[in-house]
C-alpha cells in the first residue's frame, strides 16, 4: 500500500515537471496575426474643373487613376459651382487656398502668370510632347504675354452654334432646312414661331441670361465674330462695344413682339436646354459643351445646327467664328507637392483621358488625331455639327485686368470684377433699365480707361495686345506690336 502511494506521488511529480517544462516554452505555431505593414503615404492633389466633374465616366477615370498610379497620388475633386467658378477660383488663388491643378478661363491666363500663380511647364512639354498639339496651340501657349514660359497648352476647344427646332419651323410655315442667315431673318422666324404657338407657350428664341457670363459671351460676343466684329479692336488696341448695338436691338425687338422666351434675365442655361428639348423654344445659341446636356433631356422633335446669323447678308463670313480653347488646365505654383501635381496635369492631358471625354461628347480635342476617331457612340451623330470647320478660328487673347479680392472675405458671391460689369450692362439694356447707345458708350469709356491705367503698371504691356495688321478672317496670322518690334 505504501509502495502504491509512493508510486502515485512519483508519477504526479513527473507529470508536473513535464507540464511545467512544456508550457513554459514558446508554442511551435504562433496564431498571433502578422504585423500590418504601414500603408504607403498618399499624396492628395486637389483639382478643380469648370466642367466634367459630374460625369460618371470622368469620375470612373479618376477613381481608376487613384487605384492604379504607382506614385501614391490621390486626386480629389473640389466642388465649385459652375455659376460662380471664376469668382470662387479668383478668391481662392488670392487667399493662397487654390486647388493644385485647375482649369482657368482664357481671359485670366496672362493675369495669373503675371501674379506668379502658375507653374512653368516648359520642362514637361518636351519636343515629342509638343508634337501632339497643332501649331496654333503651341503658338497660343508660347505667346509673349506669358513671359517666355509655357504655363498651359490647349488640348480641346469649344465652338458656338445656333440650334433650331425643325418641327416648330414647319408649324410656322418656315423651311426647316433653311435656318436664318441674318438678324432680320432670325427676328422674323422668331415672330412666326411665337405666333404659330400662341396659347401653347411656344417661343421663337431664348436667351438664358441667368448664366450671364457663359450665355452672353456665347450668344453675343462669340457669335458676332462671324459678322467680323468683336468688343476689342485688335488693330487699335481699344474697346468698342457699339458693334453690338444691332444684336441687342434685335433682342429688344424680339422682346417687344413677344417672341423672346420670358424671364430671360433669370433663365438658366440648363432650364433653357430642357425647354428646347421639350419643343417649347424655336432657336437658341449653344456651344459644343452643351451637347451632352441637351442629349440627356432627349429632344422630342427633330432639330438642326447652323452657324450664327450675321448683322446683314453682306457680312456673312466677314470674320472667322471665334472658337475658344476649353478652359486650359494649369498647375498651381503653391501646390504642396508640385511634382505630384504635374503628374496629375499630365494624366488629364493624356490621349486616353481626352479620348474618353470625346467619346462622351464632353470635349473636342485638338491633339493626337482624336477628332478623326471612327465609331462614335450611338446617338452622338449631331455632335459632328459642332466640329470645327474652316469658318471657325482661335483668336488672340484680348487684355484682361484682374480686380483684387480681399482674402479676409469669406463670401463667395459673385464680385463686380473682370467681365461681370460688362455682362451685367448687357442685361440691364435687355431689361430696359439702360438706354442702348448711351450705355454701350459709357462701358466702352470705362474699359478703355482701365486699359490706360493698367498701362502705367509694370506688368501690363499694352503693345502685346495690339495687332496693327489684324485680319478678322485670319485672326492668328497677325503679329502683335511687341512681336514686330522684337523681330526688327
Description:
With 488 residues, this protein is α/β, with parallel strands linked by helices. The protein has 17 helices and 15 strands. It has a 4-stranded mixed beta sheet with strand order 2-1-3-13. Helix 9 (212-222) packs across helix 15 (420-430).
Integer-rounded radius of gyration: 31 Å
**Tally of helical segments:** 17
* Molecular shape: globular
Q: Which stretches are low in confidence, meaning pLDDT under 50 for 5 or more residues running?
A: 1-5, 16-33, 403-416
Q: What summary fits the major beta sheet?
A: 4 strands, mixed
Helix content: 25-40%
Category by helix and strand content: alpha/beta
Per-chain topology:
Elements: H1 2-23, E1 43-48, H2 56-68, E2 73-77, H3 85-94, E3 101-103, H4 109-114, H5 127-130, H6 135-141, E4 156-158, E5 160-165, H7 166-171, H8 183-196, E6 203-205, H9 212-222, E7 232-233, E8 238-239, H10 245-257, H11 269-277, E9 281-287, H12 291-296, E10 303-306, E11 321-322, E12 324-325, E13 329-331, H13 338-348, H14 351-359, E14 364-365, E15 392-393, H15 420-430, H16 436-455, H17 481-487
Parallel strand pairs: 1-2, 1-3, 6-9, 11-15
Antiparallel strand pairs: 3-13, 4-12, 4-14, 5-9, 5-10, 7-8
Short description:
With 488 residues, the protein is of the alpha/beta class.
Give the tags.
single chain, 488 residues, alpha/beta, 4-stranded mixed beta sheet, 17 helices
Amino acid at each position: 500500500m505504501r509502495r502504491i502511494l509512493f508510486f502515485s506521488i512519483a508519477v504526479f511529480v513527473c507529470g508536473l515537471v513535464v507540464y511545467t517544462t512544456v508550457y513554459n516554452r514558446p508554442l511551435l505555431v504562433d496564431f498571433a496575426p502578422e504585423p500590418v505593414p504601414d500603408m504607403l503615404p498618399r499624396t492628395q492633389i486637389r483639382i478643380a474643373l469648370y466642367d466634367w466633374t459630374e460625369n460618371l465616366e470622368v469620375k470612373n477615370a479618376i477613381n481608376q487613376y487613384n487605384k492604379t498610379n504607382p506614385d501614391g497620388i490621390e486626386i480629389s475633386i473640389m466642388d465649385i459651382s459652375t455659376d460662380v467658378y471664376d469668382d470662387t477660383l479668383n478668391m481662392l488663388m488670392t487667399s493662397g487656398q487654390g486647388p493644385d491643378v485647375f482649369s482657368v478661363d482664357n481671359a485670366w491666363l496672362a493675369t495669373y502668370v503675371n501674379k506668379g500663380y502658375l507653374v512653368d511647364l516648359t520642362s514637361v512639354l518636351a519636343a515629342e510632347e509638343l508634337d501632339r498639339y497643332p501649331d496654333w496651340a503651341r503658338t497660343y501657349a508660347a505667346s509673349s504675354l506669358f513671359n517666355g514660359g509655357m504655363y498651359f497648352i490647349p488640348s480641346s476647344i469649344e465652338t458656338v452654334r445656333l440650334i433650331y427646332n425643325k418641327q416648330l419651323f414647319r408649324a410656322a410655315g418656315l423651311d426647316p432646312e433653311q435656318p436664318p442667315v441674318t438678324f432680320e431673318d432670325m427676328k422674323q422666324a422668331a415672330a412666326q414661331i411665337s405666333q404659330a404657338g400662341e396659347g401653347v407657350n411656344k417661343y421663337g428664341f431664348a436667351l438664358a441670361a441667368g448664366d450671364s457670363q457663359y450665355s452672353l459671351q456665347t450668344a453675343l460676343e462669340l457669335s458676332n465674330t462671324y459678322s467680323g466684329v468683336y468688343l476689342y479692336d485688335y488693330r487699335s488696341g481699344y474697346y468698342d462695344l457699339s458693334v453690338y448695338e444691332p444684336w441687342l436691338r434685335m433682342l429688344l425687338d424680339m422682346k417687344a413682339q413677344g417672341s423672346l422666351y420670358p424671364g430671360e434675365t433669370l433663365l438658366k442655361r440648363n432650364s433653357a436646354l430642357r425647354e428646347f428639348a421639350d419643343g417649347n423654344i424655336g432657336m437658341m445659341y449653344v456651344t459644343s459643351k452643351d451637347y451632352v446636356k441637351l442629349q440627356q433631356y432627349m429632344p422630342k422633335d427633330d432639330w438642326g445646327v447652323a452657324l450664327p446669323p450675321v448683322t446683314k447678308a453682306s457680312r456673312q463670313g466677314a470674320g472667322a467664328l471665334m472658337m475658344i480653347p476649353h478652359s486650359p488646365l494649369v498647375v498651381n505654383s503653391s501646390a504642396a507637392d508640385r511634382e505630384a501635381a504635374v503628374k496629375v496635369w499630365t494624366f488629364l492631358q493624356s490621349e486616353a483621358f481626352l479620348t474618353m471625354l470625346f467619346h462622351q461628347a464632353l470635349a473636342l480635342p485638338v491633339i493626337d488625331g482624336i477628332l478623326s476617331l471612327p465609331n462614335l457612340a450611338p446617338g452622338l451623330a449631331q455632335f459632328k455639327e459642332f466640329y470645327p470647320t474652316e469658318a471657325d478660328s482661335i483668336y488672340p487673347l484680348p487684355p484682361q485686368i484682374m480686380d483684387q479680392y480681399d482674402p479676409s472675405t469669406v463670401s463667395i458671391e459673385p464680385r463686380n470684377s473682370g467681365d461681370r460689369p460688362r455682362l451685367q450692362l448687357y442685361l440691364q439694356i435687355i431689361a430696359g433699365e439702360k438706354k442702348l447707345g448711351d450705355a454701350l458708350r459709357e462701358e466702352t469709356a470705362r474699359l478703355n480707361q482701365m486699359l490706360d491705367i493698367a498701362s502705367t503698371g509694370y506688368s501690363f504691356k499694352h503693345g502685346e495686345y495690339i495687332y496693327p495688321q489684324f485680319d478678322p478672317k485670319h485672326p492668328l496670322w497677325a503679329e502683335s506690336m511687341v512681336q514686330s518690334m522684337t523681330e526688327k
